[in-house]
Design a protein that fits this description.
The structure is a homodimer.
Chain A (H helix, E strand, L loop, with lengths): L2 H12 L5 H12 L4 H8 L3 H22 L1 H20 L6 H18 L1
Chain lengths: 114, 114
């Protein structure tokens, strides 16, 4: 997965667990791609301070993912729902029973992993 | 939802964010239904200490749910996957197009909410 997409997903899932200050810096630098200097000037803190907070948040987000694995679970789930959607969309009177079996299997595996 | 089921779900989702000490007490008292006195004796801490930790963990879990809403999202998702499973299971050559439409709609709404 592209690094930016992964960071955005991690932030999407765990951003609410950060402080408002951390969210502000991380959004500016990582998601909105402002330079460290710009953000430092805007918030009236040192460039080193901005840099440290970004690194700290990267670590926090990675730590949350290690424990809760929401991004991984989300991507698995998304793939499975996509497979159900595709399977049903290709359903005809001829393969109906097979489609039912496949959908039941995928649904069960989603339920088990939740 | 029954209070015990809700606590068990919250613990299942957010337990990894607690300390090992908190998990031990919470599992013993809330999930395995040992008495406060038993747990206090076993861990060599006061009954008040056990009581306070349980209350503290209840608050922490509620706080995580307020921010991340994983239990709510999980229950919504479970209901939707169940609806897909049921819809497909009742599919016949006659209502095939309708089933495809319904499954596409529910899948889309799952994807949007993830």
């Amino acid at each position: 997965m592209e690094a930016f997409v992964e960071k955005a997903l991690l932030y999407d899932f765990y951003g609410e667990l950060l402080t408002e200050h951390q969210r502000e810096i991380y959004e500016d630098v990582v998601l909105n791609d402002y330079s460290i200097s710009e953000v430092a000037a805007e918030l009236g803190i040192s460039r080193q301070g901005v840099h440290d907070q970004v690194k700290r948040v990267d670590k926090l987000l990675a730590g949350y993912e290690e424990r809760l694995m929401l991004v991984k679970r989300f991507l698995d789930l998304k793939a499975k729902v996509g497979r159900i959607r595709e399977t049903v969309s290709g359903c005809t009177a001829d393969n109906l029973e097979e489609v039912k079996k496949t959908v039941a299997e995928i649904s069960d595996s989603i339920m088990e992993e939740l």
